[in-house]
Amino acid sequence: MARVALFPGSFDPFTKGHEDIVLRGLRLFDQVVIGIGNNATKKRYFPLDVMQEMIEKTFKDRGNVKVITYEDLTAHTARELGATFLLRGLRNTTDFEYENGISQVNRYLYEEIETVFLITSPHLAPISSSIIRDLHRYGQGVDDFLPYSLTELNRLNRES
Ligand code: ADP
């Protein structure tokens, strides 16, 4: 049976830190599905459809990476996909505290699911979506932190 992992997150925006987790996850799993969670109560900074397109572009040469958006619970989405693993990244103890609780709940909701945590690569540890949003809000270039072109992202942003 193919080992499918769902990598869930807000990805607002998707960063080089996230890309690293996907690429390392591909050494463990047959397929990695990147799931952009769409929380209706939370307003995004970068539009969902634009971010989906940027992530798809990032992995366009890899047939074993798929990008979806979802509104359901992560555990239910994984079950529907036939994914028996959740992939998450850990940067520090704050991440751990948060992830610990979520992974327990996910296993309560879907017994067969195992969350696999990859420790961040040291050079990518300081990268977080919230810091990138702050930099971008004040006009600071953030291309160094992203695996795709922000120029294109801005163009799509203007059109959407
Ligand atoms: P969420 O809103 O669900 O926390 P994020 O998009 O912020 O979603 O992050 C998705 C996952 O990627 C989380 O497990 C987070 O810890 C991990 N992650 C974020 N940035 C990095 C990084 N620089 N290195 C490793 N993992 C990371």
TrEMBL record:
GO BP term (any one): coenzyme A biosynthetic process
Residues in Cytidyltransferase-like domain copies: 6-134
E.C. numbers: 2.7.7.3
GO molecular function: ATP binding; pantetheine-phosphate adenylyltransferase activity
Family annotation (CDD domains): PPAT
Binding-site positions, substrate: 10, 42, 74, 88
One family name in Pfam for this protein: CTP_transf_like
Family named by the database record: Belongs to the bacterial CoaD family.
Name listed for the protein in its UniProt record: Phosphopantetheine adenylyltransferase
